[in-house]
C-alpha cells in the first residue's frame, strides 16, 4: 500500500522542521559556547532525539558545516570588499576588525577563523575561497608600501589565535579591550615601523600541522 500524498507531505514537513530546529539550536549553542558543544546538548536544546539528528547529519562535522556556512559566507563578502578597497591598508584593517568582532559574537565562527580542525567539505571550500582574496589583499598593501614586506598570509591565523586569547581573557571585565590589542598589533604591521624579524613565517604545511594539534 502506498503512503497517501498528504501523509507523505506531513512527514516531509516534520523532517524539515526538525532539521531547522537542529540547525537553529546548534547555531545558538555554537555562537555562545564554541564548537565543542556536544551533540547531546544540541538535541536536548532542539527537543529532538539522537536518531533525528543522525538522520539529517551523519556526524557532527556535517552539522557544523551547515550552521557556519552562512556566517562564514558573510565574512567571505567582507574579504571581497576589503580586497577591492582602493586603499589596501584600510581594507586589511577593516577586515581584521570585522573578523575579530565576529569572534566576540560567535564563538563557533571564531573557531573556524582560527583554523581549528572542525568542519569539513563546505567549510574547507569556503576557506579555500577566502585565502586568495586575503593573499591578494596582503600583496596589494605591500605593493602600496603600507604593510611590512615580511608579513605572510600564513601569519594571519596567528592574529586570530592571539585575538581569541585576548577576547576570552578580557570579555568579563572589558568586552571591547580587544580593539586596543588590534590597534597595537596593527601598528606593528605598518611598513614604516618594521624592523627585521628574527624568524621566517610558517610554511602552509607547518601551519596545517599546528592547527591540527591545537586543542
Which features would summarize this protein structure in a list?
single chain, 215 residues, mainly alpha, elongated
Can you describe this structure?
The protein has 215 residues and is mainly α. It is 72% helix and 0% strand. Helix 4 (60-83) packs antiparallel against helix 5 (88-105), helix 5 packs across helix 6 and helix 8 runs antiparallel to helix 9. It starts with a helix and ends with a helix.
As residue ranges, the low-confidence spans are: none
The helical percent reads over 70%
Please tell me what the overall shape is: elongated
End-to-end C-alpha gap: 53 Å
Percentage of β-strand residues:
under 5%
Summarize model confidence as the mean pLDDT. 84
**SSE-based structural type:** mainly alpha
Radius of gyration: 20 Å
Major sheet attributes = none
**What is the count of helical runs?**
10
List the secondary-structure elements in sequence, H or E. HHHHHHHHHH
Say how many strands there are: 0
